[in-house]
Every structure is written in C-alpha cells, then in structure tokens.
Predict the structure of RNase H type-1 domain-containing protein.
Amino acid sequence: MVQQDGGVVRRTINGAPIRTLWKPPPEGLSKCNTDGAFCPGVNQGATGVVLQDSLGNFEGGKACWYPHGLDALMRETLACRDGVKFAMEKSVQRLQIETDSQELVRLWASGDFQRSFLAPILKEIRDVSSGFLDFMLICTNRACNRVAHVLAKQVTDEIRLGEWQSAPTCIQRLLTEDCNPPIP
C-alpha cells in the first residue's frame, strides 16, 4: 500500500512501514530540501540545502557553518532562508521548500512573526520568496532530508562554506536511492 502525505510517500506491507521516500516536486517546480544541524553544548552548527528538479536531478547544493545560534529551530529557519536564497541565485522560478521542522512550518503558516526571535529571518524568507512565480514551504519526514543533512555535515568551524554544482560523492548513493526506491 502507498499513502501520500505532503512531500512524503509512506509504503507499508500489511500495515508495517517500509521506508519513507523522497518525492519529486510537481512538474515545473524545483524542490529544495533544507536541514539544520545544531550542537546544543556549543550552540554551533550548520545548514544544508539541496536543489533538485521534478525528475530528481541534482541542480546544486550548499552548506554553511554558523558559529552562533540559540537553538535547533533557529538553525532550521536559517537553513530555509539559505535554501530560498540559493534557489534565487540559481534562477529558479517555481520553488517548493521542504523542512523537517513542523514548528517552523506552523510558524510560517500563521504569518505572525512579530513575537518570535526568528522574525527577522522569517521576514527575509518572505521577502526573497515573493520573487518566485510559485512558492510553497512544507514539512516532510526527516528521512526525506537525508541529502541536505549530509551536506550540512560537510562544513565545520574550519571549512565554513561548501557549494556544489554537481553531486559530491558523499550524497550520490542517497540521491540514487531517493530516485530509485527498492521494490518490495
């Protein structure tokens, strides 16, 4: 049985879940999966973004190291901002952003940023995203953000920025798995 839930495809055999699969965006849209990695003890971390077309082709990736940050939600919000800006730099016109942060998606949907310490970042996302012909921010299962997560792990305090025009070796297997799921 296959169930679709937002950007997530859930497969089950006799009710038992198999593996959550990455789902390509609708035709004509690009998808940017984003992920924030946060180290609570030192309040440092990174963001990772991966841009793919509706066929699952890799269109680019980026990772940024942030030496300061309050919490994981801030890192997820920065990842979303980095993804929106990266897509704009790549001349994407129609964009679907996916994050595994339900809290971020709820905050975005409410549109009430004034009381949040994330307000300036959310406003920047709103401003940049207004430049797309089509834009949506949706929540996905963490398993669908594996590629963005691995990219986030490619930067450190010593190597603060990574950008890829072609898929680096560290994510090639994941991209192949996402676009060619196993047949049960």
User: Anything to note?
Assistant: Residues 29 and 149 are 22 Å apart (CA to CA). Helices lie at 72-89, 102-110, 119-129, 146-152, 169-179. The radius of gyration is 16 Å.
